Structures are given as structure tokens and as C-alpha cells.
Amino acid sequence: MAQPVTLDRASQKDILLTTKRESLWQDALRRLVRNRAAVIGGVIILILYLTAIFADKIAPYPYEKQTLVDQNKVPAWMLKVFPTMQPYAKISDKYLLGADYVGRDLFSRIVYGTRVSLTVALIGPLISLFIGVIYGSISGYFGGRLDNIMMRIVDVLYAFPGLLFIILLMAFFRSTLARPEPGTFAYSISQLDARMGGMLFIFIGIGLTAWETMAR
Predict the structure, then answer these.
(1) What angle do CA 189, 193, 198 make, to 5 degrees?
(2) pTM score
(3) How far is Cα 112 from Cα 110, in angstroms, rounded to an integer?
(4) Are residues 167 and 206 in the same domain?
(5) pLDDT in tens, 22-73
(6) Does residue 86 sit in the same domain as residue 126?
(7) Is 14 inside a domain boundary?
(8) 3-class secondary-structure state, position 99
(9) Are 122 and 189 contained in the same domain?
(10) Distances from the Cα of 203 to the Cαs of 40, 120, 132, 174, in angstroms?
(11) Based on the domain organization, do 78 and 39 belong to the same domain?
């Protein structure tokens, strides 16, 4: 009868080191790679970010350029997909996805539009994360009556239409910052809003109306 093999402590330690469990990051990466939907989604997001970064290299025309003689021009393949466009569309292969009613290249506008969409998807959640975590942490830390009052405030905000709040917020900021004095904080915000194409207050509005779930 074979005798069981016994190992000394040094050998056992070597075996434990060689069979060391993977770290949490390695485990998370392995699970992520196995999830095909997550991988496909990550690839799509990566492509969108690369498109936004290199939009000026990818887009064949400036997104705001108008060529009135090219209005409603579409490639021939698009009429096969959307035959109802036939009565008013002009066939031309000049534009990849056609041109709109004032002759702007639709493909170029989609490419540059990724910058706006990704900025909204980044800044809005960051603002809501910042507000929601702080608000929810205060409510959860103190608890009791303060927690009850703060959560009732969240319930009231849940019932308030977010789109209406964004419109009111934009109207307030636009009227307040209509003619700010140079060198002031209001002037800096106004200039930043102008550089972002007037979208800054929309980003802030989205962030200020999406923190309730995070706080809860």
C-alpha cells in the first residue's frame, strides 16, 4: 500500500504562492471579457470617442457649411432603402448620407454630433454623481429626522418634471448672464457657455435633475 506523500512547510508555501488567487481587478477583467454584450458596448463607446476626437479628420465637410444648390441630395442607395423620398430627393453621390434642406452634409453633422452627445453623457452624470453622493451621504450619516426630511425633498423633486426644470434653469441663467461685466465669474461662465455652443446650462440642468436616484 502506497504511503501518503507529506510536504514540508517550504514546499507547501511554494505551492500556495504558485496557486495564488487572482486579484479583484483580474477577476473583474475576466468576467468583463466573458460578457459579450459588455465587450461590444465598450467597443462601440471607444469608436464613438475616437470619432469625437478625430471628427475634423473624419468629416469630409464642415458641419455648418451650407450649399443651397445641394439641398435634399441623397445617394442612389438611400432611395432603395427609403423609396418614399423619391418625389423630393435629388440623386447625387457627393454626400455619403445625403444633405439636408439647406445643403449641409449629414454625415459630417453626425460625426461632429458625437462630441455633443458624449459631452452630455460625461458632464451630466458627473454633476449628478457629485451632488447625489454628498446629499445621500449626509442623509445616511445623520439618519433619523434629518434623513426623513431630506428624502421627502427627494420625493418632491421626483415629482417635478425634469425638462421643465432645465428650461427654467436655462431661462434664469441666460437672463442673469445676458450682459456680464468682463473679468467677473459670470463673464467667465458666459464665455465658457459660448465656447460650448450654448450647451453648458443644458449639461448643468441635466446634472441637477438626475441626482435623486444617486442620493437615494
Answers:
(1) 150
(2) 0.67
(3) 6
(4) yes
(5) 688 888 888 888 888 989 999 999 999 999 999 999 999 998 888 888 888 8
(6) no
(7) no
(8) strand
(9) yes
(10) 27, 6, 16, 14
(11) no
